[in-house]
Amino acid sequence: MASAKLYLRPIGLLYGATAAEAVAEGLALPLAGGPIAFTAAELIEGVPGNTRMRLFTAHALVSSGEADLASLLARITAKRPPFAGMALDRPVLMGIVNVTPDSFSDGGLFDTKEAAIVHAAELATAGAGIIDVGGESTRPGSDAVDETEELDRVVPVIAGLAGLPAIISVDTRKASVARAAAKKGAKILNDVSALTHDPHSLREAAETGLAVVLMHAQGEPKTMQDNPRYEDVVLEVFDYLEARIGVGVQAGIERSRIAADPGLGFGKTLAHNLALLAHTSLFHGLGVPLLIGASRKRFIQGVSGGEGPSSREPGSQAAAIVAAAQGAQILRVHDVAGSRQALAVWRASVFGIEN
Ligand code: 7PJ
User: Is the pTM of this model over 0.90?
Assistant: First the structure.
């Protein structure tokens, strides 16, 4: 294995006071600065499709003395700075506002400017720290949207959200839409193509100062679900995101402005999506905040039924908890109030009622 590489998947997670005590005793290490800690990790060594895995205690990892391992551990354990001005010490909910006539889960419901603005305000009141406004449906099978059309959908809505007590994010693959959104006050560029779709996006992101979410997708929305294939989905998605973070930093986007997302549903089978969700903690090795978007996606139906997207809400909330329990910092959801309740019950049970 000439170009063997190391990946670490933190396991044996502890929460709250127990986590702090175990870290103080040298029995655990903080995950992204805490308040979750890990007592052990799977060390995966090799290249996608040809790896070996060994289990280590946190103590053994620290005392290994291997340079590659030490730098990976440093990325996993370091406290994340605020993202787009938001502290990340508890999960932040990103509420979805689709201004599209064909969005797969709430298509047509919020496709007028007024309805979208009202819906965004409701999501903010319900506890969304971020409102994600999108004008191009990227659901499986969807066609690309013309630039003028996307600008017309998104920009007036973002302009109408000024003063909302939430950070505004724009879900777009187009540099011109990102720029127009930034002018109207958006602070985050959420790009499902990880700044690859539009050749101007890297420069635009660097110059506007927007925080960016880099998401993994295999293929284009139109055909991505036709036959997705990976040797090892978890490691390949990790490598891709790591490379895109590197490209972003090279282009002048500070690391502190970048978050990463494995892109559930984007060119992935049910098994791929479940593997990514189960291995969320491995992605802390990217050294940036993690965003997970499971909400109402088809893989939930693949597990346990749920014909229409809105009937996948309980499964969506379960997936959000699975991600949050592994330290994912940002959860992209449709039902903010419901997700908030689910998270609150989980948080109270592992961190205590006061937290
Ligand atoms: C995602 C997204 C996601 C990020 C969409 C849908 C399809 N952005 N935009 N992550 N999904 N960052 O709403 O389900 O998973 S569009």
Answer: yes
